[in-house]
Amino acid sequence: MSKPTVPSQLDTTILAETFRLLGDSTRLRILFFCLESPRSVGDIAASLDLSQSLVSHHLRLLRGARLVRGNRQAKQIFYELADKHVSDMLVDMAHHVCEESGEE
Amino acid sequence: MSKPTVPSQLDTTILAETFRLLGDSTRLRILFFCLESPRSVGDIAASLDLSQSLVSHHLRLLRGARLVRGNRQAKQIFYELADKHVSDMLVDMAHHVCEESGEE
DNA sequence: CATACATATGAACAAGTATCGATATGTTCG
DNA sequence: CGAACATATCGATACTTGTTCATATGTATG
Description:
By secondary structure, chain A is α+β, with helices and mostly antiparallel strands. The first copy, chain A, has a single domain, classed as Arc Repressor Mutant, subunit A, CATH 1.10.10. Helices cover about 60% and strands about 15% of the residues of chain A. Chain A is built from five helices and three strands, in the order H-H-E-H-H-E-E-H. A three-stranded antiparallel sheet of chain A has the order 1-3-2. In chain A, strand 2 (about 70-75) and strand 3 form a beta hairpin. The two termini of chain A are about 30 Å apart. The interface of A and B includes residues 91 and 104 of A.
């Protein structure tokens, strides 16, 4: 278990798919915005200054990859990160990038 | 420092750029291959069944983002991950994806 | 039921990019 | 220096994808 470093080609594909979804600043902003607390689609669009349609499109992709999850509350649907896994990952990566400078 | 969860829009862009580079299975395969030990371009191309040109292109991108680093040794150039930061990140993400199933 | 509101979907377009083939740069050795 | 090898760059192409506009689905309220 000390050397599972090289994933199979299949795993690599899956990993890449996840990374690809995270590799768009609009989607990242949505994710980080929903990281604090569940947010409705309209709230996301307004707060991040994005069209409602665009937000919905992105949420669809994020939902498909099980990165977010939404539950309906009357007319609105509130989205939040799918699980602690995902949120931890995001926070970790944010830290990685913040510490990026002054390495060696 | 307990709630740096939401990065600035600028940071988000930088983060996304990094993710975008990781969001390609060919590049990921190259990275994981170089994770074990430094590899020459030709070795990467042969082992991963990719054209030399393609490998070089991807290495250029990865180099530009300081994800890999190469040092020349006679005719060959051996590439390795830029620092422990990057390699840790990759390994972590690989684990995340492996544990992906059987969550709830 | 009809109206208003919130979200989702579909078509279409522009921009980005992964890949390939050919060629150039650079390095070693005779 | 010139030949051989390793890597990098350039041009072109096919494909993916982020975004917008218009419209559909779904949900609550008078």
